[in-house]
Amino acid sequence: MAKRVMAVYDTDPLYTERFTDFVNQKEQVGFSVMAFTALERLKAYGEDHKIELLLISSSVSREDIEKIAAAVVIILTDGESVPPGGQYPSVYKYQAADSLMREVMNYYCDEPGDPGYSMVSKTGRIIGVYSPINRCLKTSFALTMGQLLARDLKVLYLNFEDCSGFQRLIGEEYKGGLSDLLYYYSQEGFRWVRLGSVVYTWGELDYVPPVQYPEDLCQVTGQVMAELVAHIAMESVYESIILDLGQFGKKASEVLEICDAVYMPVKEDCVSAAKIEEFEEYLVSSGHESLKNRIQKIKPPYHCSFGRKDNYLEQLLWGELGDYTRQLLRKQP
Question: Would you give per-residue pLDDT tens digits along the chain (333 residues)?
Fold first, then answer.
Protein backbone atom coordinates (compact mmCIF):
# COMPACT_ATOMS: atom_id res chain seq x y z
CA MET A 1 0.00 0.00 0.00
CA ALA A 2 1.34 3.46 -0.91
CA LYS A 3 2.41 5.65 1.96
CA ARG A 4 0.41 8.73 2.81
CA VAL A 5 2.02 12.14 2.42
CA MET A 6 3.32 14.25 5.28
CA ALA A 7 4.23 17.77 4.15
CA VAL A 8 6.61 19.88 6.25
CA TYR A 9 6.84 23.64 5.74
CA ASP A 10 9.38 25.93 7.39
CA THR A 11 11.43 28.83 6.06
CA ASP A 12 14.66 27.25 7.36
CA PRO A 13 15.85 24.85 4.61
CA LEU A 14 18.36 23.15 6.91
CA TYR A 15 15.64 22.31 9.42
CA THR A 16 13.21 20.89 6.86
CA GLU A 17 15.96 18.90 5.13
CA ARG A 18 17.24 17.29 8.32
CA PHE A 19 13.79 16.52 9.65
CA THR A 20 12.63 15.02 6.35
CA ASP A 21 15.74 12.85 6.08
CA PHE A 22 15.22 11.59 9.64
CA VAL A 23 11.58 10.58 9.15
CA ASN A 24 12.12 9.03 5.73
CA GLN A 25 15.03 6.95 7.02
CA LYS A 26 13.12 5.77 10.10
CA GLU A 27 10.05 4.76 8.03
CA GLN A 28 8.27 3.59 11.18
CA VAL A 29 5.51 6.21 10.90
CA GLY A 30 4.37 5.11 7.44
CA PHE A 31 4.45 8.52 5.75
CA SER A 32 6.33 9.74 2.74
CA VAL A 33 7.66 13.13 3.86
CA MET A 34 7.85 16.14 1.53
CA ALA A 35 9.77 19.28 2.57
CA PHE A 36 8.84 22.81 1.53
CA THR A 37 10.47 26.19 2.20
CA ALA A 38 8.29 28.20 -0.20
CA LEU A 39 4.62 28.55 0.71
CA GLU A 40 3.46 28.91 -2.88
CA ARG A 41 5.12 25.62 -3.83
CA LEU A 42 3.36 23.92 -0.93
CA LYS A 43 0.01 25.32 -2.06
CA ALA A 44 0.65 24.20 -5.64
CA TYR A 45 1.59 20.70 -4.47
CA GLY A 46 -1.57 20.50 -2.37
CA GLU A 47 -3.74 21.26 -5.39
CA ASP A 48 -2.59 18.09 -7.17
CA HIS A 49 -1.79 15.78 -4.25
CA LYS A 50 -3.60 14.69 -1.12
CA ILE A 51 -1.73 15.81 2.00
CA GLU A 52 -2.67 13.60 4.93
CA LEU A 53 -0.59 15.38 7.55
CA LEU A 54 0.82 18.91 7.41
CA LEU A 55 3.47 20.22 9.81
CA ILE A 56 3.65 23.94 9.20
CA SER A 57 5.43 26.95 10.70
CA SER A 58 3.49 29.12 13.13
CA SER A 59 4.43 32.10 10.96
CA VAL A 60 1.79 31.06 8.41
CA SER A 61 -1.67 32.57 8.84
CA ARG A 62 -4.73 30.45 9.50
CA GLU A 63 -6.26 31.64 6.22
CA ASP A 64 -3.25 30.35 4.25
CA ILE A 65 -3.27 27.05 6.13
CA GLU A 66 -6.93 26.49 5.29
CA LYS A 67 -6.18 26.97 1.58
CA ILE A 68 -3.85 23.95 1.62
CA ALA A 69 -6.68 21.59 2.65
CA ALA A 70 -4.59 19.02 4.52
CA ALA A 71 -6.48 16.31 6.40
CA VAL A 72 -4.58 16.96 9.67
CA VAL A 73 -2.61 20.12 10.51
CA ILE A 74 -0.06 20.54 13.30
CA ILE A 75 1.74 23.82 13.98
CA LEU A 76 5.53 23.94 14.38
CA THR A 77 6.47 26.53 16.99
CA ASP A 78 9.83 27.79 18.19
CA GLY A 79 8.52 28.83 21.58
CA GLU A 80 6.18 31.65 20.67
CA SER A 81 2.41 31.39 21.04
CA VAL A 82 0.46 29.68 18.28
CA PRO A 83 -1.80 31.67 15.94
CA PRO A 84 -5.05 32.95 17.51
CA GLY A 85 -8.05 30.68 17.56
CA GLY A 86 -6.46 27.49 18.80
CA GLN A 87 -7.79 25.55 15.83
CA TYR A 88 -4.70 23.38 15.41
CA PRO A 89 -2.48 21.52 17.91
CA SER A 90 1.16 22.58 18.12
CA VAL A 91 4.57 21.03 18.82
CA TYR A 92 7.91 22.60 19.68
CA LYS A 93 10.00 22.17 16.56
CA TYR A 94 13.48 22.30 18.11
CA GLN A 95 13.13 19.20 20.29
CA ALA A 96 14.73 15.89 19.27
CA ALA A 97 13.21 14.62 16.02
CA ASP A 98 12.05 11.27 17.46
CA SER A 99 10.38 13.05 20.39
CA LEU A 100 8.66 15.45 18.02
CA MET A 101 7.36 12.56 15.93
CA ARG A 102 5.90 10.83 18.99
CA GLU A 103 3.95 14.00 19.77
CA VAL A 104 2.82 14.31 16.17
CA MET A 105 1.60 10.70 16.11
CA ASN A 106 -0.32 11.25 19.34
CA TYR A 107 -2.14 14.23 17.84
CA TYR A 108 -2.72 12.36 14.58
CA CYS A 109 -4.28 9.42 16.45
CA ASP A 110 -6.68 11.75 18.24
CA GLU A 111 -8.09 13.15 15.01
CA PRO A 112 -11.39 11.69 13.72
CA GLY A 113 -11.16 9.23 10.88
CA ASP A 114 -9.35 5.94 10.43
CA PRO A 115 -5.55 6.22 10.39
CA GLY A 116 -5.21 2.54 11.23
CA TYR A 117 -4.46 1.09 7.81
CA SER A 118 -1.77 -1.53 7.43
CA MET A 119 1.65 -0.32 6.36
CA VAL A 120 3.06 -3.51 4.90
CA SER A 121 1.93 -6.96 3.82
CA LYS A 122 5.08 -8.84 4.81
CA THR A 123 5.11 -10.34 8.30
CA GLY A 124 8.13 -9.56 10.43
CA ARG A 125 10.12 -12.34 12.10
CA ILE A 126 9.33 -12.75 15.81
CA ILE A 127 12.13 -13.83 18.15
CA GLY A 128 11.29 -14.77 21.72
CA VAL A 129 13.75 -14.76 24.62
CA TYR A 130 12.47 -16.42 27.79
CA SER A 131 13.74 -18.34 30.77
CA PRO A 132 12.04 -19.38 34.01
CA ILE A 133 15.27 -18.67 35.90
CA ASN A 134 16.64 -15.31 37.00
CA ARG A 135 20.00 -13.57 36.53
CA CYS A 136 20.79 -15.51 33.38
CA LEU A 137 21.58 -12.52 31.08
CA LYS A 138 18.22 -12.90 29.37
CA THR A 139 17.61 -9.16 28.92
CA SER A 140 21.24 -8.40 28.08
CA PHE A 141 21.20 -11.14 25.45
CA ALA A 142 17.90 -9.92 23.95
CA LEU A 143 19.21 -6.34 23.77
CA THR A 144 22.50 -7.46 22.24
CA MET A 145 20.72 -9.48 19.57
CA GLY A 146 18.42 -6.55 18.87
CA GLN A 147 21.27 -4.07 18.48
CA LEU A 148 23.21 -6.40 16.18
CA LEU A 149 20.20 -7.20 13.97
CA ALA A 150 19.28 -3.50 13.82
CA ARG A 151 22.45 -2.76 11.88
CA ASP A 152 20.90 -4.36 8.80
CA LEU A 153 17.18 -4.65 9.59
CA LYS A 154 14.40 -2.63 11.16
CA VAL A 155 14.05 -4.17 14.60
CA LEU A 156 11.63 -3.52 17.47
CA TYR A 157 12.36 -4.67 21.04
CA LEU A 158 9.50 -5.34 23.47
CA ASN A 159 10.15 -5.99 27.16
CA PHE A 160 7.48 -7.76 29.23
CA GLU A 161 9.14 -7.42 32.65
CA ASP A 162 7.10 -5.90 35.45
CA CYS A 163 10.10 -3.97 36.85
CA SER A 164 12.59 -3.52 34.02
CA GLY A 165 14.65 -0.58 35.28
CA PHE A 166 14.80 0.77 31.71
CA GLN A 167 14.25 4.41 32.58
CA ARG A 168 17.19 4.46 34.96
CA LEU A 169 19.37 2.22 32.82
CA ILE A 170 19.01 4.24 29.63
CA GLY A 171 18.41 7.64 31.23
CA GLU A 172 15.34 8.49 29.15
CA GLU A 173 12.16 10.18 30.35
CA TYR A 174 9.14 8.37 28.93
CA LYS A 175 5.79 9.94 28.12
CA GLY A 176 4.26 6.65 26.98
CA GLY A 177 5.02 2.98 26.57
CA LEU A 178 3.67 -0.55 26.62
CA SER A 179 1.00 0.35 29.20
CA ASP A 180 -0.46 2.90 26.76
CA LEU A 181 -0.17 0.50 23.82
CA LEU A 182 -2.05 -2.21 25.73
CA TYR A 183 -4.76 0.24 26.75
CA TYR A 184 -5.33 1.53 23.23
CA TYR A 185 -5.25 -2.01 21.85
CA SER A 186 -8.02 -3.03 24.26
CA GLN A 187 -10.09 0.01 23.21
CA GLU A 188 -9.58 0.30 19.47
CA GLY A 189 -7.50 -2.65 18.26
CA PHE A 190 -4.10 -2.25 16.65
CA ARG A 191 -3.34 1.01 14.87
CA TRP A 192 0.18 1.54 13.60
CA VAL A 193 0.14 5.24 14.46
CA ARG A 194 -0.38 4.34 18.12
CA LEU A 195 2.75 2.24 17.92
CA GLY A 196 4.68 5.13 16.40
CA SER A 197 3.62 7.37 19.29
CA VAL A 198 5.39 5.19 21.88
CA VAL A 199 8.53 4.02 20.04
CA TYR A 200 11.93 5.22 21.30
CA THR A 201 15.41 4.49 19.98
CA TRP A 202 18.52 3.34 21.88
CA GLY A 203 21.63 2.97 19.79
CA GLU A 204 20.28 1.49 16.56
CA LEU A 205 17.40 -0.38 18.18
CA ASP A 206 13.78 0.79 18.37
CA TYR A 207 11.87 -0.18 21.50
CA VAL A 208 8.65 0.45 23.37
CA PRO A 209 9.24 1.35 27.04
CA PRO A 210 8.04 -1.44 29.38
CA VAL A 211 4.88 -1.14 31.47
CA GLN A 212 4.73 1.65 34.01
CA TYR A 213 3.05 -0.50 36.68
CA PRO A 214 3.36 -4.28 37.23
CA GLU A 215 -0.44 -4.50 37.44
CA ASP A 216 -0.65 -3.61 33.75
CA LEU A 217 0.93 -6.97 32.89
CA CYS A 218 -1.09 -8.93 35.41
CA GLN A 219 -4.32 -7.83 33.75
CA VAL A 220 -3.26 -8.99 30.27
CA THR A 221 -3.74 -12.56 29.13
CA GLY A 222 -1.10 -14.37 27.13
CA GLN A 223 -3.53 -14.61 24.22
CA VAL A 224 -4.10 -10.85 24.09
CA MET A 225 -0.36 -10.17 24.20
CA ALA A 226 0.22 -12.71 21.42
CA GLU A 227 -2.47 -11.06 19.28
CA LEU A 228 -0.92 -7.62 19.76
CA VAL A 229 2.55 -8.86 18.80
CA ALA A 230 1.13 -10.64 15.75
CA HIS A 231 -0.55 -7.42 14.60
CA ILE A 232 2.70 -5.49 14.97
CA ALA A 233 4.54 -8.15 12.96
CA MET A 234 1.97 -8.04 10.16
CA GLU A 235 1.13 -4.35 10.01
CA SER A 236 4.32 -2.42 10.77
CA VAL A 237 7.62 -1.85 8.98
CA TYR A 238 9.63 -3.97 11.43
CA GLU A 239 11.43 -6.92 9.90
CA SER A 240 12.28 -8.46 13.27
CA ILE A 241 10.62 -8.17 16.66
CA ILE A 242 12.55 -9.20 19.78
CA LEU A 243 10.35 -10.27 22.70
CA ASP A 244 11.98 -10.19 26.13
CA LEU A 245 9.39 -12.13 28.09
CA GLY A 246 10.85 -11.40 31.51
CA GLN A 247 8.69 -12.61 34.36
CA PHE A 248 5.66 -13.21 32.15
CA GLY A 249 5.48 -16.61 33.78
CA LYS A 250 3.56 -19.53 32.34
CA LYS A 251 1.52 -17.09 30.24
CA ALA A 252 4.69 -16.83 28.14
CA SER A 253 3.84 -20.09 26.37
CA GLU A 254 0.98 -18.49 24.42
CA VAL A 255 3.28 -15.70 23.22
CA LEU A 256 6.15 -18.06 22.45
CA GLU A 257 3.85 -20.10 20.20
CA ILE A 258 3.78 -17.26 17.64
CA CYS A 259 7.58 -16.88 17.64
CA ASP A 260 9.69 -18.00 14.69
CA ALA A 261 12.64 -18.63 17.03
CA VAL A 262 12.86 -19.02 20.81
CA TYR A 263 16.01 -18.71 22.93
CA MET A 264 16.18 -19.81 26.55
CA PRO A 265 19.25 -18.73 28.56
CA VAL A 266 20.07 -21.41 31.14
CA LYS A 267 22.47 -22.04 34.01
CA GLU A 268 23.85 -25.33 35.33
CA ASP A 269 23.01 -25.14 39.06
CA CYS A 270 20.42 -27.51 40.47
CA VAL A 271 17.84 -24.81 41.27
CA SER A 272 17.91 -23.47 37.71
CA ALA A 273 17.67 -27.00 36.30
CA ALA A 274 14.63 -27.70 38.49
CA LYS A 275 12.85 -24.55 37.27
CA ILE A 276 13.47 -25.42 33.64
CA GLU A 277 12.24 -28.97 34.17
CA GLU A 278 9.05 -27.66 35.79
CA PHE A 279 8.42 -25.24 32.90
CA GLU A 280 8.91 -28.02 30.36
CA GLU A 281 6.46 -30.24 32.23
CA TYR A 282 3.97 -27.39 32.13
CA LEU A 283 4.37 -27.09 28.35
CA VAL A 284 3.47 -30.76 27.96
CA SER A 285 0.50 -30.67 30.34
CA SER A 286 -0.91 -27.46 28.83
CA GLY A 287 -0.80 -28.64 25.22
CA HIS A 288 2.36 -26.76 24.17
CA GLU A 289 4.62 -29.79 23.84
CA SER A 290 5.67 -28.84 20.30
CA LEU A 291 7.02 -25.56 21.68
CA LYS A 292 9.34 -27.51 23.96
CA ASN A 293 11.13 -28.93 20.93
CA ARG A 294 11.53 -25.50 19.30
CA ILE A 295 13.26 -23.84 22.23
CA GLN A 296 16.99 -23.34 21.77
CA LYS A 297 18.80 -23.37 25.10
CA ILE A 298 21.85 -21.11 25.31
CA LYS A 299 24.49 -20.27 27.91
CA PRO A 300 25.51 -16.62 27.45
CA PRO A 301 28.94 -15.76 28.96
CA TYR A 302 29.05 -13.78 32.18
CA HIS A 303 32.05 -11.99 33.67
CA CYS A 304 32.39 -10.00 36.88
CA SER A 305 32.88 -6.58 35.23
CA PHE A 306 29.74 -6.88 33.08
CA GLY A 307 26.73 -4.70 33.82
CA ARG A 308 28.15 -1.27 34.63
CA LYS A 309 25.55 1.38 33.90
CA ASP A 310 27.88 4.01 32.44
CA ASN A 311 28.87 2.02 29.34
CA TYR A 312 26.28 -0.73 29.23
CA LEU A 313 25.59 -0.45 25.48
CA GLU A 314 29.31 -0.75 24.64
CA GLN A 315 29.60 -3.79 26.90
CA LEU A 316 26.70 -5.46 25.11
CA LEU A 317 28.23 -5.02 21.68
CA TRP A 318 31.97 -5.35 22.27
CA GLY A 319 32.29 -7.63 25.26
CA GLU A 320 32.12 -11.40 25.47
CA LEU A 321 28.33 -11.36 25.18
CA GLY A 322 28.53 -9.43 21.91
CA ASP A 323 31.02 -11.94 20.46
CA TYR A 324 28.87 -14.85 21.64
CA THR A 325 25.70 -13.39 20.09
CA ARG A 326 27.42 -12.61 16.77
CA GLN A 327 28.58 -16.24 16.51
CA LEU A 328 25.10 -17.48 17.36
CA LEU A 329 23.51 -15.30 14.67
CA ARG A 330 25.94 -16.55 12.05
CA LYS A 331 24.77 -20.12 12.68
CA GLN A 332 21.09 -19.28 12.22
CA PRO A 333 19.36 -19.98 8.87
Answer: 457 888 999 999 899 988 888 887 776 566 788 899 999 999 999 998 899 999 999 999 989 999 898 989 999 998 765 544 567 888 888 888 888 888 888 888 766 555 544 444 457 899 999 999 988 899 999 999 999 999 999 999 999 988 888 888 887 888 889 999 998 888 877 777 788 888 999 988 999 999 988 888 888 888 999 999 998 898 888 899 999 997 677 788 999 999 999 999 999 899 999 999 999 999 999 888 989 889 999 999 976 656 566 678 888 888 899 999 999 999 876
What is the per-residue DSSP string for 195-246?
Answer: HHTS-EEETTEEEE---SSTHHHHTS-HHHHHHHHHHHHHHSS-SEEEEE-T
Q: Which of 48, 81, 91, 88 is nearest to 64 (CA)?
A: 88
Q: Whole-prediction pTM value? A: 0.76
**Residue 139's Cα: distance from chain center in Å?**
16
Q: Do 145 and 261 touch, CB atoms closer than 8 A?
A: no
Beta-sheet strands, E only, within the chain: 4-9, 31-36, 53-57, 72-77, 90-92, 125-129, 155-159, 200-202, 205-208, 240-244, 261-265, 295-298
Left (φ > 0), alpha (ψ -120 to 50) or beta: where does 35 sit?
beta
Measured from the Cβ of residue 178, the count of other Cβ atoms closer than 10 Å reads 24
